[in-house]
Amino acid sequence: MRQGFFALGVEACRHGVSAAGLLAHIERALRPRPKAAFAAERLHTADLALAVAVCAGHAGAWHELTADQEPLMLHSAQAHLTEIEACFTVRQLLAQVREESMSETEGPLSFQRYAGLVSLRSWLLDRLLGRIYRQRASAQAGVRVERGLDPVSRLRLGARFVRVDGMPLGQAARLVGLRESDVRRAATRRIDTRQLLREMPRLDRAESGGGKAT
Q1: Are 150 and 126 contacting, i.e. CB atoms less than 8 angstroms apart?
Q2: Using an 8 Å Cβ cutoff, are 109 and 123 in contact?
Q3: How far is CA 119 from each of CA 43, 123, 124, 138, 190, rounded to the nearest angstrom?
Q4: Cα separation of 142 and 3, whole Å?
Q5: How far apart are CA 187 and CA 170, in angstroms?
Q6: What is the pLDDT of residues 4-48, one digit of tens each?
Q7: CA angle (6 as vertex; 110, 50 as ends), nearest 5
Q8: What pTM did the predictor assign?
Q9: 112 DSSP 8-state letter
């Protein structure tokens, strides 16, 4: 635990953020999750300090983040969109991330919601893919998330559609190709990532017809 807090302090100093400010950010971002979910040694400390610095308005932190993350985001988006559409979508999302992160109100794309429990890369890609699939759903009735995306990733997307975007449960479940009961449980945070990983074989069976849809 001490090593975890020491690493937080080192990263905070590197980006011009106080350790106290960083810990206050974690506490806010973890709401309303129980404090038991916090373990300093498990946090992505470098990513967390970078996100806090962006919230504080440090231009250097934002340039570092986009230099690291934008190329991968563009590559991922181009698997689903044309090159021009991918560029527009990624840059629009990043602009909104920066604007919301520096705002007093915590929007759905704000780094104020980022607690370092996953990497920034995963956090950003999750939101990018969610936006792409929502755009497709509005442009083409009946579209579903590609089966190339593993069940856990699709379940996370479904939960985000319900919890953050306010999408009806049935629509979200159809979009990600999973059962309503699984999406509902994930959206209400009754299962965590480790449990999702344990349940992957059951999710695979359910989507292939081995489980009864709700």
Answers
A1: no
A2: no
A3: 9, 6, 9, 29, 22
A4: 50
A5: 12
A6: 545 555 665 666 777 677 778 877 887 765 554 455 557 788 888
A7: 25
A8: 0.61
A9: G
